[in-house]
Specification:
The structure is a homodimer of 161-residue chains.
Chain A: H1 3-16, H2 23-32, H3 44-54, H4 60-72, E1 76-79, E2 89-92, E3 100-104, E4 110-113, H5 116-128, E5 132-143
Parallel strand pairs in A: 3-5
Antiparallel strand pairs in A: 1-2, 3-4
The first copy, chain A, binds a DNA duplex (25 and 25 nucleotides) through helix 2 and helix 4.
DNA sequence: GTTGGTGCAAATTGTTTGCATATAA
DNA sequence: TTATATGCAAACAATTTGCACCAAC
């Protein structure tokens, strides 16, 4: 999903709700869907930093409020990847799509994947317990095999050993 | 796992680390593994409340510090069930065991389950991306079919299955 | 007696909110 | 024109920490 498509969805949502399209909301959405940035699962703070490089007058609260709007119209999903992460991180979403995550406990490297067999089994389990599935979250933690694993230790994915 | 077994593991851990076994640590562990309580996935606050009914002099900080110890020796796992939960909740663990969760979005009802087929597929996916699995977290959200669903709107006040 | 533990209150951190002003519709 | 948005600072809520006194070893 491109920034332009996301903006269209956002504007439709705002209109429907009688809310206003502002320069800040457009900028934040644009940055959030920036191809160079959209796989970062950014925290609000990280998004705020990027936004500030393009308009230093934008306030922290506005970023929080806009991210909340993006979540409401399903353009963003809150995630708690790293088992030790304190901040909530957000991921750009195309409505209808879904994927899960593999997270490297050493270097924080994240892989997104989809697996229909697992999804089918989840529905089966849910049905067995009388649940109607609305959504699910699955994160697999492990060690990746990239050559430069360990060389980029990030704060994000480090549980107590 | 009984309170007694948990206590034994904790005391072993404390000894190994040169830390001390105190009445508070014993009490908190006992309450955390109390059979009437151990499936509640309690928050630190909820655990604190229960502990206070048995010793009103125990402080909030001590409960936090003790829970941290329990996590370190793998007797507790931090969870963020409810997509809207603010507080971290903790679950008593028997080392080696594992289960996932079904959470009702309406009433907060939680079912624990295990599914070997899903676990096998997770390993397959991980291998495909060159990851060695260390652990995983899976939560399925949906609507349960219990007769009194909706009547218990908070995740804290949950029935025993 | 020494080292680590506790309770309290104060500090920190991520997030939200009240308010006066600014801006889209 | 009029409702909604913004930026700022203050408020909040969950969690952590500094410190003087206590208690396990």
């Amino acid at each position: 999903m491109t920034s332009a498509e996301a903006l269209e969805i956002l504007e439709g949502y705002l209109q429907k709700k009688g809310l206003k399209t502002t320069a800040q909301r457009r900028l934040i959405t644009e940055v959030f869907f920036d191809p160079r940035f959209k796989h970062d699962h950014p925290s609000v703070d990280s998004l705020y930093q990027h936004v500030r490089t393009r308009d230093a007058s934008v306030g922290y609260a506005t970023v929080y409020r806009t991210v909340k709007l993006l979540v409401e119209c399903r353009l963003a999903t809150p995630r708690q990847l790293g088992p030790t992460d304190k901040e909530t991180r957000y991921e750009p979403e195309a409505p209808g799509e879904h994927h899960d995550h593999l997270v490297c406990l050493e270097c924080g490297f994240i892989v997104e994947f989809e697996n229909e067999e697992i999804e089918a089994l989840q529905h089966q389990v849910a049905r067995h317990f009388g649940f109607a599935i609305r959504e699910h979250r699955m994160v697999i933690y492990g060690n990746c095999s990239r050559a430069d694993c360990e060389r980029r230790p990030t704060a994000e994915a480090r549980p107590t050993p």
